[in-house]
Amino acid sequence: MQIRSLRTVFLFALVLLAVSSASFAQVRIAVSFGPPALPVYEQPLCPGDGYLWTPGYWAWGDDDYFWVPGTWVLAPDAGLLWTPPYWGWGDGGFVFYDGYWGPQVGFYGGIAYGFGYFGVGFEGGRWDNGHFFYNRSVTNVNVTNIHNVYNTTVVHDNVNRVSYNGGEGGITARPTAQEEAAARDHHVAPVAAQTQHLQEARGNVELRASSNHGKPPIAATAKPGEFREGVVASREAGAPYSPPANRTATAARGENGRPATPIHPNDLPAMDRPAAPNTGNPKLDKKYQQQQEKLSQKQDQERQKLQQQQDKEHQQLAKQKADDSQKQQTEQKHQQQTQQLQQKHVQQQQDLQQRQAPRSPAPAAGRPRG
Hints:
Layout: H1 2-13, E1 29-31, E2 51-54, E3 57-61, E4 64-68, E5 70-74, E6 81-83, E7 86-90, E8 93-97, E9 100-102, E10 125-128, E11 131-135, E12 149-150, E13 164-165, H2 177-184, H3 192-202, H4 209-212, E14 220-221, E15 249-251, H5 282-320, H6 324-356
Parallel strand pairs: 5-14, 7-13, 11-12
Antiparallel strand pairs: 1-8, 1-15, 2-5, 3-4, 6-9, 7-8, 10-11
């Protein structure tokens, strides 16, 4: 019972944004008050062909909102688009929904992040024959280096800077049937570069809302994790921001009943098993399936091994009659170990899927069709 109580304490005191491969839309962090408005900033120049824009957003950590700068990210595979994360009102608090990669852009709260994300879908570019074409009317692309561009004027009515859906003053948008279908489609979790970008932002005190008051000094970067070169500062805050004195956050649970912030391997959601390969070559499909099963078995063994190790440390603490400080330090170490293992497994699954993905033919010259 003491261990269970400590878990509850840490879910309140050490709220982290966990990365999840299968249930990242269910991994939630609930905060009693809404995030600041979206700051006003310019989009940095696209660093190269194949990079897709991922807009900046407010995340939560260390009892404060912090700004995760917008950045250009290489798509994990041809044909995949980014659905941004968003905050939405639910269960008496503001709940965070993580972003994901997929063949279609899903619901992101109706938030007008800009640069092609104006509340519904994405107008900043499109895939054609395995190659991404940029809409220059809403994205910052150097045509000297990137020739796969087009110009389509985008008219949008959502021009406010509100950064959350629902609740008092929030966006009232609801998902369309197409967006609901996209949410059920195959997803790919944020890539490792995005996870590192998030952690870099979380560790930067100047990006905390209590420090920048809604006007972060680093609003966007040219590449993920690069916070010194090619950065863009906010021109102004989207609206005045003053957080309440009694700032609180709780870790909400997903449909599987697991805590949103995993402390032990048993708290982690089940890994998403990729769909059976279908390359048209039965022998190759069998080989790929065996590779997937081998990786899944190895990851399950690593989870069990870490859980057994942590259980043993709990037993030792009980025998030693450790005080609360020692127990808290151990739980914090366990949380870090679990998060690192989870990130490692997500990256391994992504790497395997990329190696098994069919190679796209070279794109045809010229502009995209229709």
